[in-house]
Write a structure and sequence with these properties.
Layout lengths: L6 H10 L6 E5 L6 H13 L14 H7 L6 E4 L2 H4 L27 H11 L9 E5 L7 H12 L5 E7 L7 H5 L2 E4 L5 H10 L4 H7 L4 H7 L3 H12 L6 H12 L2 H5 L4 H19 L11 H10 L2 H17 L6 H16 L5
Parallel strand pairs: 1-4, 1-5, 2-3, 3-4
Helix pairs in contact: 5-6, 9-10, 12-17, 14-15, 14-16, 16-17
Pfam families: DNA_pol3_delta2, DNApol3-delta_C
GO molecular function, one term: DNA-directed DNA polymerase activity
Keywords: DNA replication, DNA-directed DNA polymerase, Nucleotidyltransferase, Transferase
């Protein structure tokens, strides 16, 4: 299924037909459906009898192979932590996977995956001769992996189409970006997304505010209402409460069945904290609440007593923490550091 805000882009891809370049780079914020579009394009290219609208028929032999996950000419290059879940940038928005075994698996795309791909591409295709390689998220490649993929992009085997999906294209090698035709995705119109969320029985306004207008991220967040309510309750009680015991509670919370079942992890928790402090800083500087409009009263009360320099410093430190949140050396210590900085920021200026 092509989401309504991607229909125009989809038609442009279909219209290219055989004029598609050998490598595409889909870039834009997570939660827009970039991976869904990459999957639909792969399905179309491998289908023996595409429908008039350009989509795969889902009935032919090649489609049945693809749907079963056994198509020999479709290569999904994703982190090991994503393999069991079988989904891409949309469900990855803000957190780790929901299985206890997945949390220990690599969140990187490793060089062995590209070496296996090189070996597979050294022989001719099994079906129509066309082969499709989807790399998602492309920024999950470490430098060694990226350089190995670059060699394939420089001298692509005949009949191969590479589709790279990225929410952080600046983390890609410039040489990789230069060898791909870039397709940029931006936030869709709020009215269209609101109608889509309404059709999926999800409250639109608050969810879209917190996710920055990203529709699939908002849909996912609709199932995390209890988690979000706890987060708001906990941060609102600081600095009156002691941040160190709260860090311990959050550490246990992230390992709970509730959090794992919802795919809620430390990355998403840090992102919520970033957005909460962003609203706090915005109000403190005379702006407006952007991410937590329902909690404006709480945020405003905190902003009125907070120290502006401390809030801005907390915002900068949260950006640093977010960069390492995917691979924390010690999650408990990281949570303590984050909450201590926040508590100092909202404690008010020192007398």
């Amino acid at each position: 299924m092509i989401h309504p805000w991607l229909q125009e882009t989809w038609q442009r891809l279909v219209a290219l037909g055989e004029r598609l370049p050998h490598a595409l780079l889909f870039v834009g914020p997570a939660g827009l459906g970039k991976r869904d579009l990459a999957d639909a394009l792969a399905a179309r290219l491998l289908c023996a009898t595409p429908r008039p609208d350009g989509g795969a028929c889902d009935q032919c032999t090649t489609c049945q192979l693809r749907r079963s996950g056994n198509h020999p000419d479709l290569f999904m290059i994703v982190p090991a932590a994503d393999m069991e879940a079988g989904d891409g940038d949309e469900s990855r928005e803000g957190g780790e996977r929901d299985a206890g075994s997945a949390k220990k698996k690599s969140t990187q795309i490793v060089i062995e995956q590209i070496r296996d791909l090189q070996q597979s591409l050294s022989v001719t295709g099994h079906q129509s001769g066309r082969r499709v390689i989807v790399v998602d998220p492309a920024e999950a490649m470490n430098p060694y992996t990226a350089n190995a993929l670059l060699k394939l992009l420089e001298e692509p085997p005949a009949g191969c189409l590479f589709v790279l999906v990225s929410s952080a294209p600046r983390r890609l090698l410039p040489t990789i970006r230069s060898r791909c035709q870039q397709w940029s995705f931006s936030r869709p119109a709020a009215e269209m997304v609101g109608q889509w969320l309404g059709a999926h029985e999800a409250p639109a306004a608050d969810l879209l505010a917190l996710t920055g207008g990203m529709p699939l991220a908002a849909q996912r967040l609709a199932g995390q209402g209890a988690l979000l309510a706890r987060f708001v309750r906990d941060v609102a009680q600081l600095p009156a409460a002691d941040p160190l015991p709260l860090a311990g509670q959050w550490d246990a919370w992230l390992k709970s069945k509730e959090a794992l079942a919802a795919g809620f992890g430390i990355v998403q928790l840090v992102e919520w904290m970033q957005r909460w402090v962003t609203d706090l800083a915005s109000l403190r500087l005379g702006g407006r609440v952007r991410f937590f409009p329902r909690e404006e009263g709480v945020v405003r009360a905190l902003a009125q007593r907070s120290d502006v320099a401390a809030v801005l410093n907390c915002y900068n430190e949260l950006a640093r923490i977010r960069r390492v949140a995917q691979h924390p050396l010690n999650a408990r210590l990281m949570l303590e550091d984050m909450l201590l900085r926040y508590a100092r920021a909202v404690a008010g200026p020192r007398s």
